[in-house]
Design brief:
Elements lengths: L2 H12 L5 H17 L8 H8 L3 H4 L1 H24 L1 H20 L4 H29 L3 H16 L1 H15 L4 H4 L1 H15 L13 H19 L1 H4 L4 H23 L8 H4 L1 H31 L4 H7 L1 H18 L6 H16 L10 H28 L7 H37 L6 H34 L4 H15 L5
Helix pairs in contact: 2-7, 2-8, 2-9, 2-11, 5-6, 5-7, 5-12, 5-21, 6-7, 6-11, 7-21, 8-18, 8-20, 9-17, 12-14, 12-21, 16-19, 16-20, 16-21, 16-22, 18-20, 19-20, 19-22, 21-22
Length: 503
């Protein structure tokens, strides 16, 4: 029996054990911590900067160091999961993440905090692909796996919002350092439970990513994410942004060419060639593209115009989290075994496009119940429909020795989509605000005029973002087959016969 078939047999056996749902809680909690850390420190930045006497130019690196390491090394982390088995890489990832969280929380200088955040990102890149691989290993039955992906996705989809809420509360009532210390007990509980609740899935020792592949993918992805993150400060036409994006294109093109010829590629192209999976990757990118832009609009509306405190603004996001979890677990998970995922993903994307478009209804006098809450409801419904459905489609029929890298590319799609969406939304909004100020004569108070300009900028950016997601929805609907259950497994099996993993 080959290592792949042995792994499959073990998966099928383990999936029936009674503790699989507890195992799901362990991996989802660990992944939630990794996702929280993309936003949990955002609200704490001013406090951290003052405490560590950091210059304004350096503070962005507290966030950027994490996102660059995380996004740049995801594919490498996915291949490590395939090579050594997801349980081993899960435990290494969560351990390193906890240690670096403690180091960052205790940092005595800005440089120490930035270094700890970068290493947090490295271990998050090792951890993240392993969690999705473990969910696939824990649940073999189609209906149970759909429910599991619903629970997992509902938890993970709320990560960014919960990060803002938790970050605000910890900063206001304890200290910015607890935005990092809070990871330690959660990680410790996951690490203690993992040996008893997670199955041992053998790795594929033939998966040996080489240094050039890792360098091309890592630096290329880091340049892409960093390039979009620099748009806010430098503009789309700056040499810095264009240079980073050009470097990314060159490196990632070289990476793809190498993968097409390599006998042991870091990212086998069979992972991308399946149209169902490609459509799901695009859906993940589009949803994050919209939601990170929305977080920018909402932050300005709640804190600048409606004068909410950071904690109150964080609490204002909670209804969207609730709707997301309910939609993922009670709608998507129940329908997924019976309908094509295209009939969940496409309506979900349209909900996100519609929710973003509703920002055009905003005014300086908008109320939470009259405007914000309806938007959150529509967006939460869309996210809850998309996330479990796209995740299931991504992992459906994936070969055992490709699960880690497939899960990694799913998260990579999310990272890239979010980076592009945030950069585009911020640029469009800022440009519209500047045009409004130039073309309108200030009336009333300066504060009122500023609020009107911000509302106008939000409407312009929301219109463009919504339209782009709506157009992307057409491509997603076309790509995903009406019978994904028969597409993924067969196509990957055929590709494996044509391009076997074992030399």
């Amino acid at each position: 029996m080959t290592s792949a078939s042995s792994a499959e047999a073990l998966v099928l056996s383990t999936a029936r054990h009674r503790r699989r749902w507890a195992g799901l809680v362990v991996v989802a909690s660990a992944q939630l911590v990794a996702m929280l850390d993309e936003t949990v420190i955002n609200i704490a930045l001013p406090s951290a900067q003052r405490s560590l006497h950091m210059a304004d130019a350096d503070r962005q690196w507290i966030i950027t160091a994490y996102t660059l390491a995380f996004g740049g090394l995801l594919l490498f982390g996915g291949r490590l999961s395939d090579r050594f088995g997801p349980k081993r890489t899960f435990m290494v990832g969560i351990t390193g993440f906890a240690v670096m969280s403690a180091v960052g929380g205790a940092a005595g200088s800005g440089g120490m905090l930035i270094a700890a955040r970068a290493l947090q990102g490295v271990f998050a890149a090792v951890l993240s692909p392993s969690t999705l691989s473990m969910v696939t290993a824990l649940f073999a039955d189609k209906k149970e796996r759909a429910k599991a992906f619903g629970v997992y996705s509902g938890i993970i989809a709320s990560g960014a919002v919960l990060g803002l809420l938790i970050g605000g509360m910890l900063t206001e009532y304890l200290s910015w350092r607890w935005c990092l210390f809070i990871n330690v007990p959660i990680a410790a509980m996951a690490l203690a439970a993992a040996p008893f609740l997670l199955p041992v899935v053998p790795g594929d020792r033939t998966a040996r990513p080489n240094v050039p592949d890792i360098a091309l993918a890592g630096v290329g992805m880091a340049a892409l994410v960093f390039g979009f993150s620099e748009v806010e400060g430098h503009g789309w036409g700056s040499g810095r942004v264009l240079g980073l994006l050009a470097l990314s294109v060159v490196l990632l093109t070289g990476f793809v060419l190498r993968q097409a010829r390599a006998s042991q590629p870091l990212l086998p192209l069979r992972v991308l060639n399946d149209r169902n999976r490609a459509g799901a990757f695009l859906a993940v990118a589009l949803s994050e593209f919209g939601l990170l832009g929305v977080s920018l609009f909402a932050t300005y509306q709640l804190q600048v115009i409606m004068h909410y405190s950071p904690v109150k603004a964080g609490l204002a996001f909670l209804p969207m989290v609730v709707v997301t979890v309910v939609a993922a677990t009670q709608i998507a998970a129940r329908l997924l075994p019976h309908v094509s995922s295209r009939w969940l993903i496409a309506p979900g994307l349209l909900c996100i496009a519609g929710g973003i478009a509703m920002f055009n209804l905003m005014s300086t006098d908008s109320t939470y119940l009259g405007t914000i809450l309806p938007i959150w409801t529509v967006l939460g419904l869309g996210l809850g429909l998309i996330t479990p459905s796209a995740t299931n489609t991504v992992m459906l029929g994936t070969l055992p020795h490709d699960r880690g890298i497939t899960a990694a590319f799913r998260t990579t799609s999310q990272q890239v989509g979010g980076s592009v969406g945030l950069a585009l939304a911020n640029t469009l909004a800022a440009s519209a605000v500047a045009s409004y100020v130039v073309s309108h004569t200030a009336t009333g108070t300066t504060e009122q005029f500023t609020a009107e300009a911000l509302v106008h900028g939000t409407a312009v950016a929301a219109s463009w973002s919504s339209a782009l997601i709506a157009v992307g929805t057409i491509a997603v609907f076309w790509l995903i087959d009406s019978r994904p259950e028969t597409g993924g497994e067969q196509s990957d099996t055929k590709k494996e016969q044509d391009h076997p993993a074992t030399p």
